[in-house]
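P.,

For your records, the input lines for the assembly:
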Amino acid sequence: MKRFLTVLLATGCLLVAGHGIWQQVPAPLPDTWSPVEVALIKSLSLSQLPPLPADPGNAFGDDEEAAALGQQLYFDTRLSGNGNISCASCHRPDLMFTDGLPLAVGSGSGTRHTPSLVGLSYSPWFYWDGRKDSQWSQALAPIEAPHEHNIDRLSVARLVTEEQPYKETYEAIFGPAPVLPKEGIASPLGREAFIAGWNKLDKDQRTAINRVFANVGKAIAAYQRKLQPGPTRFDNYADAIGEGDDRTGNGQLDAAELAGLDLFLNKGQCVNCHNGPLFTNNDFHNTGVMVLAGQLPPMGRYDGIRIARQDPFNCLGDYSDAPNGECTELEFARDTNELVGAHKTPTLRNVSWTAPYMHGGQLGSLEDVIRHYNEAPVSMLSHNEAKPLSLRSVEQRQLVAFLKTLSAPLATPGKWLTPP
Ligand code: HEC
Ligand code: HEC
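Structure tokens returned:
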């Protein structure tokens, strides 16, 4: 407590000396958290994260062999049109499965920022606009996207059923592989040449290719389910404090970080959306992030839910393993005009290692993010759910200090973090 007060006073004095404005001195914090605050802080701890729920659409989601196969596919650049791109090109293990770029670059330039994959398997929706309702179905999209892997479905199906190291493993997991056309490229999506090839196939051939393709997604998803966050200094703190204790806990957090936590819970209202052990409500919100130059204002989740409903690889589709009645997220998803321009709340775990930020990489640093929330600009297309905060500059620095306590090495064993 004494150290905390000294730091607080020193910070205050420095600011007063530096700026000559008394308003810069933050009000001293009370000595203890209220019972409600203690409960809230504990609810954010990683120790409160429940076991990963099964994905009803993916019968292989928790199969170890499927995860090992998925790991090989995840790092395999043969899964691309030019032989240079894998999932790991953009979701890099050394950058918490992001790429450090504002906008992703694969076979071409993308229009969205690459999100982290850590802890993502808990999310019911994928992509910034939630246009995919499962991680296995999501994995299929970048493979055919012209600016990402840019390879066709038939070539991928041939690779995994006919080439090494996949052939035997594929059949051991998913059963006998179908006989596929020996030649040609074919896919209903992506480049014109892919689509032309697809139009020449009959229904049974298309179904057989789709089934292998879906299994590729299921294996890659099984791999991604291994990518789990590790305990941070914040978690140690949250687990140590109890009702009536002073705020210092076990000394895991310093005075600025504690003040930042207070702001996160109270004045900043961050916890309204960034809540639970992964610091996300897995929902979609408008936060007034500026539209990227040269782009139309994004429709966000408003379009995302429509695309998810029409996706042949969704939870209700022919390639899903979900029994009747298990696709409740898709069937009962919120669908209102409020969702125009809304994006998925990202996790804040490891956030200090995943710059830049937001769906278009619009904000370069955590300082920029806090400045954005402080001003709460109104977005071009719709409202901003976050309201201006009137944070003093010292408070903005404290919030950043707190966000930096949320990073730690993954809980995932090292063998999953490199090409097999
Ligand atoms: C060219 C870079 C690039 C490649 C290659 C790539 N991704 Fe992504 N990934 C992105 C971007 C950008 C987004 C966000 C796109 C959006 O929301 O519209 C994304 C989104 C995702 C998401 C959803 C994240 C979330 O928060 O909901 C998952 C899961 C994912 N990718 C996994 C994969 C897998 C698996 C592969 C390989 C099959 C892959 N990605 C290949 C750039 C890439
Ligand atoms: C109304 C819900 C809501 C509130 C309140 C909110 N956020 Fe967010 N946050 C989001 C959404 C949604 C995004 C993604 C927005 C986008 O990309 O368009 C986001 C993005 C972020 C990011 C970028 C993460 C990344 O990986 O790109 C950070 C950091 C962040 N928020 C921190 C905060 C802090 C700190 C506060 C409190 C001052 C806060 N948020 C309040 C919903 C919210």
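Two observations worth noting. The CA atoms of residues 57 and 322 lie 4 Å apart. Residues 1-23 have pLDDT under 50 and may be disordered.

Regards
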